[in-house]
Design goal:
- The chain is built from 7 helices and 18 strands.
- The protein is an alpha/beta fold.
- It has a 10-stranded mixed sheet with strand order 1-2-3-5-4-6-7-8-9-11.
- The chain has helices at about 1-15, 85-90, 135-150, 165-175, 195-200, 235-245, 260-265, and strands at about 30-35, 40-45, 60-65, 75-80, 110-115, 160-165, 185-190, 220-225, 245-250, 285-290, 310, 315-320, 325-330, 345-355, 365-370, 375-380, 385-395, 400-405.
């Protein structure tokens, strides 16, 4: 494996040696090659003034193609950990179990980004740019993602962001702020949550009156209480719940691990939610205050050996989204088709909020009518226009939730 990384690194380093012409924007392709039976392209580019870097810089990114050419493919965006750069990150995908989150599905384009080349970009920008404002690193990442979407005809509703460790921190911090770009994000043992807490104005900050945050991507996070990098998850989980953001979380004493096979021995739920089926142009429900959530081990039970979850068993299927009404089926996974060491609940109670509404527009503070099975009522949208129906009883049998503007 070390030999493979060395060979790949040398080849890519040669390909990315500074060319005679000036490197600027848009990116310039340096090399085509093949890796694990898939075409890979190496690009370099300079910085753009609008990104706000104090000094010009140059960056490299890699684009890995699907195994078979296809139009309108999804995009799998990878942020590497502190132990890697963009080249060694891709090299990990040659072997199962080596940073599994880096391994893109074969039917996707994959974009591998770098934060190691330039000092200020380290830790995906949070160290150099610690405030809540969108910083240069983040602007570069988003500009690159958008360029790849356009360049390769990507399905813009199926763009996914993931990362491991430092890259997990970046995935949360950069991804949650850009629900207008990413459908869903997945963070493998994110190395702290200060990045996302800063960018999303989590407590003790508050969202300024002149700042509008788009509905964020659905978030999947698996972390270990016996991993020092997981500190702060108690505040993060509380903020996600209070803000009514879609969140699936799994934990257990698997440490700062990146091998899914090993993590699954501790918590077999980490891959149970199909995050790559989420689409940006579809509404989704948010489950908060669920009766089936396990008690968090953070901050005081870090030696607890028990695995746990938040919202692991909830699922939905959209029915319709019109200017007047939205309908979605809510249900729990069934024990018969869901293999796990966890006890699968037959019923759960949760508050349900609706986000990423495509057609229905609800003004802040407006009243709406809702119906769920035989239950019905009226609720008022919050100050951002988000609708929440409290205390719904959800079971394995799908039940339709309908929400309509009050007449």
């Amino acid at each position: 494996m070390k030999k493979l990384i060395l060979v790949l690194g040398l080849a890519l380093a040669a390909a990315t040696a500074a060319p005679t012409q000036e490197i600027s924007w848009p990116p310039t392709k340096q090399k085509d090659s093949e890796f694990t039976g898939r075409k890979v392209e190496v690009f370099r580019h300079g910085s753009v003034k609008e990104w706000g870097y104090a000094e010009p810089q140059q960056d490299t990114f890699l684009v890995l193609h699907p195994t078979e050419a296809r139009a309108n493919a999804p995009l799998y965006v990878v942020l590497h950990s502190a132990g890697h750069d963009v080249h060694s990150c891709l090299a990990c995908t040659n072997k199962a179990g080596n940073h599994d989150i880096y391994h893109s599905p074969k039917d996707c384009f994959a974009l591998y980004l770098d934060c190691r080349a330039n000092k200020g970009d380290w830790w995906w920008g949070i160290n150099k740019y610690p405030g809540p404002e969108v910083g240069p690193t983040e602007k570069r990442v988003i500009a690159t993602v958008k360029w790849v979407i356009k360049q390769y005809g990507i399905d813009e509703n199926r763009v996914y962001l993931c990362g491991n460790s430092m890259g997990g921190s970046g995935a949360l911090g950069i991804g949650m702020r850009h629900g207008d770009v990413f459908a869903a994000i997945k963070a493998n043992v994110p190395a702290e949550v200060k990045h996302v807490s800063s960018r999303m104005y989590f407590p003790p900050r508050t969202v300024p009156a002149d700042v509008t945050l788009p509905d964020p991507p659905i978030v999947v996070d698996y972390s270990a209480p016996n991993d020092g990098w997981s500190r702060g998850h108690d505040g993060f989980v509380k903020a996600m719940n209070e803000r009514k953001y879609a969140f699936f979380m799994y934990w257990g004493p698997f440490g700062h691990a990146n091998n899914h096979e090993n993590i699954l021995k501790v918590n077999d739920l980490i891959n149970s939610f199909d995050w790559l089926s989420v689409k940006k142009n579809e509404s989704y429900p948010v489950f908060t205050n669920a009766s089936t959530n396990d008690p968090l081990p953070w901050p005081d039970q870090l030696t607890d050996k028990k695995a746990g979850q938040i919202n692991a068993f909830f699922r939905w299927k959209n029915v319709s989204d019109t200017p007047d009404t939205i309908e979605t089926m809510l249900f729990l996974v069934k024990e018969s088709d869901f293999k796990t060491t966890f006890k699968v609940p037959a019923e759960a109670t949760a508050d349900v909020s609706l986000r990423r509404l495509q057609m229905l527009r609800v003004a802040p503070g407006a009243m709406v009518n809702w119906r769920f099975g035989k239950s019905e009522g009226e609720v008022r949208a919050d100050a951002t226009g988000c609708i929440t129906i409290p205390g719904l009883k959800i079971a394995a049998e799908p039940t339709k939730l309908s929400v309509a503007k009050a007449k």
